[in-house]
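To illustrate the input format used throughout this study, we show a single complete record. The first block contains the structure-token representation of the backbone; no residue identities are included at this stage. The design step must infer an amino acid for every position from geometry alone.
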């Protein structure tokens, strides 16, 4: 399809700031950003006691300043995040993280003040302000800021919360990251004793050797169990801080904040989970059939990613990159060209080596119109899916490059739409082009593993976190109780279809410890199912659909998900119909999987 160079498995951070965690350029950059935050704060002091339409020039000046700072802080956050992920032993990177966190907090304190100032503008004046051309395109965002101020405490109290969060709330999250960097898993590699990072160890769960998977799982549980009390302490303090803030604000529902962040109605969330709970049987059938294929009565947790195909299904990084590019080319030229650029310009860190953080992520760099993708690639179908997933995130940022900075802050649920959409392109196109039984089986299995993850694993996370917060309202929750809550949630989430579960999942899954987004779970499932609706349209329209897809992505930062779905898909997310169709699409491969394994 195209002549491709050999792609490097390590990313390029030097083009961003030379010197890594020792970069003088980055220190200067942070200093400049700090000055801009201080200047913005000075602008707010000019705000009149009674805002009139004639004062709109000051508001525009403030918005422009905010936009610049937002871009710079995202650039800084992303760079430091990359430094920490590529080498968990980089102590200088941890120090930089603390500095950037403080800078984020200073900016947040000013934004709290701006929100309040907007909230104080009388309704008639506000209607006139929204008619101004410079403000009109930001109507949704500035209204959101204005409404948020009415839901919160006084400026002084909200700023105090921000201040205390640096060494409290956010400090506990950073402690967790530090603890995880010290978790090591012993491993005997053909007689050679090694120590694996959690990222390397997790890749072993997709090994074809069940004894190895079981051995790795046992060691995994021991490693996390050895520090379970410390992780429990961390999780309790994080949630305790959050609940204390909610109580002060008069928020009784722990879902209020995550739903607001995701610009989503509770009715939509409830409908989605209800439909999923009612339609899990096909996935249970898949898990039971896979167990029989592996010679088991039931699967255990460490069997979920077990491969059914031969070892030749493993792809090198180069083969994986070329495979993804080929599949993306079936969808549209812009996605293909963008992805090729990401590989060629070394935006991806994929090397399998010690001291890397676990998991995968994509982070945007808006000032340079770039992204960086992090993962540990070992050639499994799951790795390939992760790579496609993160490239989908990166393309979302690319689609937003010309959108106003205040309109580009899209929520996690719609962020996951772009990523899972990219996964689907790769999975479906690969399935259609499979040349033999084993290859087709492996691809079907990988695709259904993803449906299990989104509709069962994520559901169990949501059930766990919901139960945990109810317990936490009444006091400290022990590590033993946390494991019990996790076990119960997994049994319900997986419809009790497994032999053994992962009670310490609450400790090993970093999503529970992230402070930016509480309930960092349901947005994945929403994004997955929402992307199925988009994908159905893409299949109907072919390459002509790509521009419509980009237009949808551009709107993700400036409307509710319900309005987004109605505008671009003409569907009502509060009704069962959309979700039933989406879940049926997610489980539609089960029938073929069972037929294929009957042969």
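Output of the design step:
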């Amino acid at each position: 399809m195209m002549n491709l160079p050999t792609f490097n498995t390590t990313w390029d951070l030097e083009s961003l700031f030379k010197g890594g965690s020792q970069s003088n350029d980055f220190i200067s950059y942070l200093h400049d950003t700090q000055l801009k935050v201080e200047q913005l704060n000075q602008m707010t002091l000019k705000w009149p006691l009674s805002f009139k339409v004639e004062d709109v020039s000051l508001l525009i000046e403030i918005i422009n300043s905010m936009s610049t700072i937002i871009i710079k802080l995202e650039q800084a956050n992303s760079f430091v995040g990359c430094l920490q992920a590529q080498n968990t032993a980089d102590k200088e990177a941890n120090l930089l993280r603390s500095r950037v966190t403080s800078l984020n907090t200073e900016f947040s304190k000013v934004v709290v003040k701006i929100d309040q100032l907007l909230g104080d503008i009388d309704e008639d004046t506000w209607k006139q302000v929204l008619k101004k051309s410079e403000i009109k395109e930001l109507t949704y965002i500035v209204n959101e800021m204005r409404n948020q101020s009415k839901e919160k405490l006084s400026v002084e109290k909200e700023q105090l919360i921000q201040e205390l969060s640096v060494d409290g709330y956010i400090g506990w999250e950073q402690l967790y990251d530090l603890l995880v960097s010290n978790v090591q898993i012993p491993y005997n590699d053909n007689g050679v004793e090694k120590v694996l990072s959690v990222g390397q160890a997790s890749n072993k769960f997709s090994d074809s050797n069940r004894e190895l998977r079981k051995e790795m799982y046992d060691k995994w549980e021991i490693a996390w169990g050895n520090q379970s009390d410390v992780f429990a302490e961390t999780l309790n303090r994080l949630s305790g801080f959050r609940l204390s803030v909610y109580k002060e604000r008069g928020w009784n529902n722990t879902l209020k904040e995550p739903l607001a962040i995701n610009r989503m109605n509770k009715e939509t969330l409830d409908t989605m989970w209800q439909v999923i709970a009612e339609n899990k049987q096909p996935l249970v059938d898949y898990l039971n059939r896979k167990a029989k294929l592996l010679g088991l009565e039931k699967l255990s947790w460490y069997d979920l990613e077990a491969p059914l195909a031969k070892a030749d299904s493993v792809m090198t990084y180069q083969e994986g990159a070329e495979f993804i590019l080929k599949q993306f080319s079936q969808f549209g030229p812009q996605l293909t060209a963008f992805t090729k650029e990401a590989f060629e310009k070394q935006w991806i860190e994929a090397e399998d080596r010690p001291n890397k953080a676990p998991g995968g992520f994509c982070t945007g760099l808006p000032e340079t119109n770039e992204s960086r993708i992090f993962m540990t690639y070992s050639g499994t179908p799951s790795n390939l899916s992760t790579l496609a997933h993160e490239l989908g995130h990166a393309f979302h940022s690319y689609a937003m490059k010309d959108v106003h900075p205040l309109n580009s802050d899209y929520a996690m649920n719609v962020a996951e739409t772009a990523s899972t959409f990219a996964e689907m392109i790769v999975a479906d196109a690969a399935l259609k082009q499979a040349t033999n039984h084993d290859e087709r089986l492996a691809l079907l299995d990988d695709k259904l593993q993803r449906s299990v993850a989104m509709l069962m694993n994520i559901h169990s996370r949501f059930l766990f976190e919901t139960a945990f917060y109810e317990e936490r309202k009444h006091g400290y929750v022990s590590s033993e109780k946390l494991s019990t809550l996790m076990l119960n949630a997994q049994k319900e989430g997986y419809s009790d279809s497994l032999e053994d579960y992962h009670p310490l999942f609450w400790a090993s899954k970093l999503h529970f410890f992230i402070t930016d987004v509480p309930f960092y779970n349901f947005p994945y499932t929403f994004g997955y199912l929402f992307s199925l609706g988009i994908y159905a349209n893409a299949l109907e329209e072919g390459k002509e659909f790509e521009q419509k897809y980009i237009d949808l992505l551009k709107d993700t930062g400036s409307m509710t998900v319900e309005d987004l779905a109605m505008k671009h898909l003409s569907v009502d997310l509060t009704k069962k119909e959309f979700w039933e169709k989406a879940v049926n699409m997610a489980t539609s491969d089960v029938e073929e999987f069972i037929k294929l394994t009957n042969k």
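Structural context for interpreting the output: Residues 204 and 213 are 6 Å apart (CA to CA). Residues 20-167 form a domain with the Butyryl-CoA Dehydrogenase, subunit A; domain 3 fold (CATH 1.20.140.70).
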